[in-house]
Every structure is written in structure tokens, then in C-alpha cells.
């Protein structure tokens, strides 16, 4: 989950002519590598998603600012053929006639200052997330609550007031606002730096939030069970595929913080593509990293599909357990197992302007909203669980044809789609993701630094898991790496005054 300044485009490495010769976006490299004497520092970043692409960008930003590290070379590896970790698709696989539809992460919000700023600086186009055609909450058998406006408008709708009263929405709003206020300190000139996420959590006064489920925490704040099991759970299920009584309250608050919800026209991956382009790192796509082993000279040998290479430092920017990278046991033992929510995404086009009411066995006069969210409450009380976490219309793709996105725990069959949309289904595309970490209440997190000069960006994910927070986690890791190896932080050597601290909408990492 998911704040604006337009600056002149910064030539990120223009001030330093770096000795980078390998073209941007090498698709794969066939020639065997000659292992050169490691005469200048080299950093390997594994993963070209939000975490890895932004890590390369932060290093470039530091190079731009001060000398001493301008000789550092950065290699980014990704086993995918594309940048961004998530991708877009085109209805009917036709990019000429149809616009891109996000298959993975779609939304960032105004409090996500790194991505918001990147969109402005990189001249990308931000698109408001529009869902004004109504929102409803389905429990598997009944439509419990609907608004004629969008999901984001429920807070102050008269209908919400009638159903949930005044105090529960108000207290929930205060809880979310206070979380956002703390979150924004991560961009301030004196932004915290952390080598331990438990300590960070404590310094932000979030220990109570991460150690309790969203339901427990909100109940303790006097929020009613009805409000929690309906509106709050609808948002934890659509954003994280988890119920409010299972997911910790910090992530619960993040799923309730939609102000300024936006996406990038043409696909959010462009932000990460630009991060890498501006970093001038060497990018190796279609290249799996297979193992990382230490050398006796305190360096790391990385074995990938392109051969072996020696590095001064490693930044792992992918969920370790899914990478299948072999590392020494004293490193792997420091990363606790982390289950992920396995999510089925089904995209389809339909000529039905909304799901027909009879598909839900409701009277034909019932108007089914364009965004259907769900609660587990029916199943808790012995009913059946909804077949989907969310089902939402995402606008017209051509005259009289809409695109719909369904998130579900299980595969959605063609038979179910036909039944649901009264046989009016055109294009269908399915994708499975290990989408987000399972986020139960906790008090411990993986280490940020796994060994000397070996850093783990995704240690942040069990705390908060979004595209933006991965850019914050990578900023922190890069700052730590620069301090460890170059006696300098992301904003310069210790003691260097920070620039522009009085600037309106200052963003640490961009403006220092
Ligand atoms: C359907 C869906 C919807 C979502 N919605 C949102 C949303 O609306 N807003 C939001 O902020 N977040 C959302 N998220 C979560 C968001 O996508 C993640 O938090 C974020 O992308 C994680 O970034 P990352 O860089 O850590 O990991 P990833 O994006 O997973 O990147 C890791 C990269 O590492 C590469 N890799 C892995 N192993 C190896 C290896 N051995 N060698 C080389 N490369 C390797 C992978 O190919 C991948 O590209 C959503 C996720 C999904 C799946």
C-alpha cells in the first residue's frame, strides 16, 4: 500500500563518468566470464523488483552526491525476462488495440513518497484509481453492505454511519491516521536507520500493532466486531488475502490507508525500469543466481547462469526461500521460514456491465457493485467461504466490453466464470503468485544484515509488504552498506550537512 514534487529530471550519474560498458538490459550472456582481479568494488543485487531496482537507484544517488564510491560497479540479476517483479498484460494479448492491465501490484498511495516522487521525476503518468461504481461486501451467501460510491468513500457515507455507528469508523480512521503520521517520519531528514526491525518497530511505537491481530487491536480500541469483520476484513482480504483475526494490526492499518490510490499509466513496472536505467547498473535478465559463497578475502562468489563472479557486497532483494539460492548454513539459518499467500489472479473480459444479481441468487432488482470485497464472517459462523477474495471491474476495454480482475485462494474454473457472467466471457488469463507474506502477529523479524557485506532487503516484508516499503527497505540497506564499506551513508559521509531540509515535502534519499 499502499505526496508530490516536480523537479527537473536529475541526470543521476551524469556527474561521474562510470566505467560501465555492458549495455543496459542484457537479455542473457553466453560467453564464459573471465574472472578479473577484483580491482574495484562490485556489488551484486539479486532481484530487479521494487527492492532490487530501487537499491541500484539509491547507490547511483549516493554516487551522484559525493566521491569515494564512484568507482563502485553494480550488477543486477533477475531470473525473469522483465523488470519490476510484477508485470502487465494486454487483453487478448493485443498491445496495439488494448491498454495494459496490471497482473500484480496495482496500487500505491500518496503516503508512498518514493514511488510518488519517482513518477513525477521520471515523467510517468499517474492515474487515479477510480472505483466510483460502487462497492459491496459479500459473505458467500449475502450482500452485507453496499455503497454507491467507491471503496474509498465508505468512511463518511451515511450508509456506513447507519450500519456501523459513528465510533467504529472514527476510531479506525484515527488508528490509520496515526500509523500514517509515523510512517511519514521514514522520509524525514532525520529518518530512522535500522539494523534490526524489532528495534525500528519499537522506535515507531508499533510494537503493539505488530504483536496483535488487526481484530484484537481494533477491539481493544473500542471498534465493534461488526465493523471489523465487515469493512476492515474486506480490506485485509483484498490487499493481503488474509483475515482480520490473522493478520497483524500494522499491516491491517496499511490495507485501510487508501488516500490518493493511484497506478502508473501503462504499468507500475515502469518506475522500476527507470530506477534501473538511471542507476546505470549492469542488468542481467533471464539470469538465475544459483549460489553465493564467501571467499577467504571477505568477498562473495556469486554463481549464476552467466558463470561465477566475485563481489565486495551482496544485496539480496527477493524472498530468500523462493530464490532457491544456496548459501552457507550460517546465513540460511538466520532467515526464518516465511510462508507466502498463494494467490490466483483471474483476468477476464465480459460484455456484462455488472455481475448479474441472479449469479448470486439475489433478486434481479439487486444492483451488484463494480467492486465486490469479501468477509470470512459467514464461514466463521458455519456458512460457506466466498469463492473469491475480491472481484472488481476495471473499466471498459472496448465499446461494451469490460475487464474484470478476480483474486482468489483457489483456481476459478471456466464453468464458474460462465455461470457468474451468464456466458458473456471473452478473454481469460490466469496467473498464480506467491503474492504476500503470511503476516501473523509477531515480535521477531529476519536480520537485515545476514553476514559481513551481505544484506537482505526482504527482511522488511513480514513487517510491511508493499512496493513502496521495499524501496524504503532498500534505501536503508544501501545506507548501511555504504557506511560499512565506504564510511559514508546514502546522504554523504557522516557529518555532511543534509541539503534542503526545509524544503516542502522533503523526501530523505531524494533531497539530501
Ligand atoms: C497480485 C498482487 C497484487 C499486489 N498488490 C499490491 C498493491 O496494490 N500495492 C503494493 O504496493 N503491493 C502489492 N503487491 C505486493 C508487491 O507486489 C510486493 O510487495 C513487491 O512487488 C515486492 O517487491 P520485491 O522487489 O521485494 O520482490 P519481487 O517483486 O518479487 O522481486 C524479486 C525478484 O527477484 C527475482 N528472483 C528471485 N529469485 C531469483 C534468483 N535465484 N536469481 C535471480 N533473480 C531472482 C524474481 O524474478 C523477482 O523479479 C501485490 C502483489 C501481488 C502478487
UniProtKB/TrEMBL annotation:
Signal peptide: 1-15
Assigned keywords, A-Z: FAD, Flavoprotein, Glycoprotein, Lyase, Oxidoreductase, Signal
SUPFAM superfamilies: FAD/NAD(P)-binding domain
GO BP: any one term: prenylcysteine catabolic process
The keyword Flavoprotein appears for this protein: yes
Family annotation (InterPro entries): FAD/NAD-bd_sf, Prenylcys_lyase, Prenylcysteine_Oxase1
Superkingdom assignment: Eukaryota
Domain Prenylcysteine lyase: 152-481
Cofactor: FAD
An example Gene Ontology molecular-function term: prenylcysteine oxidase activity
Family: Belongs to the prenylcysteine oxidase family.
Protein name per UniProt: Prenylcysteine lyase
